[in-house]
Amino acid sequence: MNVYALVHGRILDALKTLQAEGALPAGLDLSSIEVVPPRDPAHGDLACNAALVLAKRANMKPRAIAELAAGKLRADPDLAKLDVAGAGFLNLTFRPAFWQRIVSAILQERGAYARADIGRCEKVDVEYVSANPAGPMHVGHGRGAVFGDALANLLAFVGYEVTREYYVNDAGAQVDALARSAFLRYREALGEEIGEIPAGLYPGDYLRPVGRALAREHGPTLLNLPEERRLPLLRETAVAAMLAIIKEDLAALNIKHDVIFSERSLTEGEDEVAETIAELRRKGLVFQGRLAKPKGHDDADWEDREQTLFRSTAFGDDVDRPLMKSDGSYTYFAADMAYHRNKLSRGFRHLINVFGADHAGYLTRVKAAVAALSDGKADLDIKVCQLVRLFRAGEPVRMSKRAGTFVTLRDVVDEVGRDPVRFMMLYRKNDAPLDFDLAKVVEQSKDNPVFYVQYAHARAKSVFRNVRDVFPQMCEEAAEVAGADLSPLQEPGEIELMKALAAFPHLVEGAARAHEPHRLAFYLYDLASAFHTQWTKGNESPHLRFIQAHDGKLTAARLALVRANAQVLAAGLAIIGVHAPEEMR
RNA sequence: GGUCCCGUAGCUCAGCUGGACUAGAGCAUCUGCCUUCUAAGCAGAGGGUCGCAGGUUCGAAUCCUGCCGGGAUCGCCA
Predict the structure, then answer these.
(1) Residue A298 pLDDT
(2) Which residues belong to CATH 3.30.1360.70 in chain A?
(3) Can you tell me the distance from the alpha carbon of A556 to that of A537, in angstroms, rounded to the nearest whole number?
(4) CA distance A395 to A14
(5) Where in chain A is the domain with CATH 1.10.730.10?
(6) Where in chain A is the domain with CATH 3.40.50.620?
(7) d(CA A464, C1' B20) / Å
(8) A355 forms bridges with which residues in the sheet?
(9) Gap from A583 CA to B64 C1', in Å?
(10) In this structure, is the CB of residue A2 within 7 Å of any atom belonging to strand B?
């Protein structure tokens, strides 16, 4: 049950009645009428802008429309108060019984509460992480990983058929560098003194096990192989090993993709990149041309030459993009176009890519590619996650690959745990930079939002542990609780809590439409706050405690509220992938 | 130089994609609340010309334009 949708419907009905009676013009566009909680509580529980939106379309004064609508709505028995305020806002205040029914609905619907069907089972592909298989993931990757995973959860929750996808860049020069680095480690494992790892190769220790494995399996035979025969084998071994590390890193965050898509597979067998270029050529979007030398940074290697270009400027890009390198191989972008064409061929019309900040400049051309390849029939949303800066108790964590002080994602997860990492990565809008403090996120205090939210859930659960001594029959699953008469819930703090619970479906829907899972984290913080507030009031005023030993009816009603609260906290935490603990001691 | 992102209280950030004369949280500062359903919490106070200047609108932190400041990126890396 979604209160906002419910009230929205009632207001639309009132407006339609007015139209039928001739008080309002027929054929009015009733879209963009919104029901929202007003910022100022003095403006009631919910406010509606219908009169302001319709004024111009109906050629009437907003207040006149508002008064007409109010006349119809006043008969609503759920309303305690209905004001026409300001320029023509409808301010609605509801009776407690209205909010109490929401609590009943939450308990009945259980895990289905706030689920929606805005996805209508349509397929959506969420591509996230897509880190190069060149080593362990860093913290920045982790942000994209958590963001993408939570977004995928959220979209699944509102009725999309979600595919979680990882694009492995297992082609190109970087992979060759990885293979050569692994070869050095192989020689090292055979007892050779390899000295310093040359610049351009990967110096990390994580390649040592790869070298040892190669030595175990092949002995010295690889040494005498010509490089063109050795390299493919090294590539495959090294990429597989790196991918295994990355998958473990992701598993530590409870992240698992449905599809791991290999860039190399695009050109093995059928050359999908060539097919893609051919298709775009048929559409007149590929041509031979020259590019201007980029300004603003020195590029000594620049050579002016004719090359194969994709006409991305036809789709709002500021320059056309090359498809072939000077050595005749495909550019990364050409392969990526083929990859997106592949997604389209698998039936996806909704695509979402999660990028790191360093790919921000790449965004327009990918959108251009998808527009060109789908003839504008698919939508692509690209979410850019900004950088993560690591801190420890307020001090920046200095990192250097060379000095071996590089902190990986896995280091962080191992140190502070999965839940704090997941929560904090979402406790900031994706396009804002994020400061992650290793000390703060494990702190058990109200200054740590992860703890604060989890603690609210644990507290709710503790109420049910405590009630056993007084009303043994009122366990969490008991019919006495689920079916309790909720009319005793009249306290202002209780009403506030009920309103906060009622806001959840609207919040979920908005977050899903905007592709902004961070809203969940902020909502959960607010809900936890409403609960802690009511809890502490019980310390000062014993009659506000949830458990009232001499009043079973009141206790049952309050327990129903506590249970609904725990249920919504758990549901929200589940979407962002954070554990909802039973207790925290 | 081009493009993209950001610029809201001393600090860190929300602001539901245009709404109400007093723009919200948290931290920090100051003042209160433990014979306790876990005070691992709660209540209150002070603090902001929403970077600047225009424009659109009944109405702008939110949309448009131009500046200023910070970051990312700019064929042959991925």
Answers:
(1) 65
(2) 3-94
(3) 19
(4) 58
(5) 449-576
(6) 123-168+263-385
(7) 43
(8) A384
(9) 52
(10) no
pLDDT tens digits, residue range A208-266? 999 999 999 999 999 999 989 999 999 999 999 999 999 999 999 999 999 999 999 99
Q: Report which of residues 239-268 in chain A place their beta carbon less than 7 angstroms from any atom of strand B.
A: 263
A121-125, A438-442, A456-460, A551-555: lowest mean pLDDT where? A438-442
CATH class of the structural domain A449-576: mainly alpha
pLDDT of residue A443: 83
Q: Distance from residue A318 (CA) to nucleotide B67 (C1'), in Å?
A: 22
The DSSP secondary structure of A296-312, one letter per residue, reads: SS--TT-----EEEE-G
> What is the C-alpha separation between A154 and A507, in angstroms, rounded?
11
Homologous superfamily of A123-168+263-385: HUPs (3.40.50.620)
Nucleotides of B under 7 A from a protein CB: 1-6, 12-17, 19-20, 22-24, 26-28, 33, 36-43, 58, 71-78
Task: Give dist(CA A244, CA A223) in Å, integer.
Answer: 25
For domain A3-94, give the fold: Gyrase A; domain 2 (3.30.1360)
Give the tens place of pLDDT for each residue, A258-283: 999 999 999 998 999 999 999 999 99
The predicted complex's ipTM stands at: 0.92
Q: Token pair for residue A183?
A: 């070869």
